[in-house]
Amino acid sequence: MIVGIGTPIGAGTQVKIIVMGGGVIGVTTAYWLAKTGHEVQVLERHGSVGEETSFQNGALLAPGHSQSWAAPGALWTLFKSIFQKDPALRLRFSSDPQFWRWAMKFLANCTAEDYRANTLRVLRCMMAGLAELRALSAETGVGYSGNDRGILYLFRTIRSFEERHGDWTLLREHGLKLEEADVERCVSIEPVLGPVKHLIGGGFFSPEESAGDALVFTCGLAEHCRAIGVSFAFNTTVQAIECHGGRVRAVHTDKGSFSGDAYLMALGPYSPILLRPIGLNLPIWPVKGYTASIPINGHAGAPKVGIIEEDNLVAFANLGDTLRVGGKAEFTGYDTSYSEADFRGVMAVSKELFPDAGDYSRPRYWACLRPVSAGGPPILGETPVANLFLNVGHGAAGWTEGCATSRAVADIMNGRQPDLDMEGLRLSDL
Ligand SMILES: Cc1cc2nc3c(=O)[nH]c(=O)nc-3n(C[C@H](O)[C@H](O)[C@H](O)COP(=O)(O)OP(=O)(O)OC[C@H]3O[C@@H](n4cnc5c(N)ncnc54)[C@H](O)[C@@H]3O)c2cc1C
The whole model's pTM is what? Predict the structure, then answer.
């Protein structure tokens, strides 16, 4: 094999591949790799798959939310949040030089031109991801408690609706089916908004979007993977990657060393930490978010369509027996702790809009880290280390993007041209 930038495995050759990470991204890539005949082993530090960011996310499959966070107004939004009580966005300055490196790159991406390009890259990945998820689910029978009633992007005032109008128009111009909805139309789409319609200024409805449970999917797909020969090493923490001559030779863990012919990095927000010692600096930073699962428990006031309340950035997904409520973006490094107080803002919005959504006295709380790339799009495919490949940096969109980015990375590893347009998604593009 030639040593160079991301040497593919070679068409038709069957090899051993080590997948680092058992979240939705690692498991989905393991599936595509095993499907093409490879021997695949997944290394995961927990006792099961999907136990971190993929455990309880916002549960929306939402290409309508592909706007890059690195936007022209981002610095002003951050500044305003300093003075807000329970802000949707909270920045705690870090002394970690990695944070500052990421922040400089993030700010460099905040031009109107980069915002537009990055948003369209994320849109492309999310639209392809949702289509791949549906196809994969139909083919394998792996479910995800899906709800295909669409998503309503809701604004509190006519002013906030008009201010953000251009962001959604951009998505519509690039293939997303979106309907502009006045207050009456919002209520006809989601009747439980009727009693609170005085709190709404308008919205966009995306009828072809969905909600679904990433954990249900990840666990179901892992079962399917086992049936087609994938092995899982659980309770196994990757500690170091050993490279010689431009190739990975082994992955060292607390349970010994694992070797293969090729390696996939899918450790979510932790990927940069393991890659830095081998000279790969990825512009990815963890951004904490909070979710609550509210048991619907016979209550009639839960929204049936997915909703993102855009003024406070709170997401709602009806998963049948529970309403998933999520939001907030906090820069607190790798801290994943949470207390009831952290959910105050998110729960206040939920109770205000949907007072009879469920049993608010029995929420299941969770906090986890979005692996946010400086520009917004995921970072995929080849690295300067010949047999090491990436499927990382999905930020707030990994559940929606995952099936497409995983298929594309598996194609790249197999030396095939991916269906997904890779413009701007490779490490070499950054
Ligand atoms: C609050 C919140 C809401 C979100 N809402 C949505 C949404 O509505 N729609 C959407 O599309 N996306 C959403 N996302 C984003 C989505 O959840 C993520 O992009 C996705 O789950 C990332 O998957 P992953 O497999 O890369 O990471 P993870 O699920 O974190 O998987 C990485 C795995 O690597 C393992 N690991 C880490 N370090 C090691 C190590 N050293 N050794 C061994 N194993 C290790 C972890 O245990 C973990 O299982 C949300 C994210 C957050 C935080």
Answer: 0.95
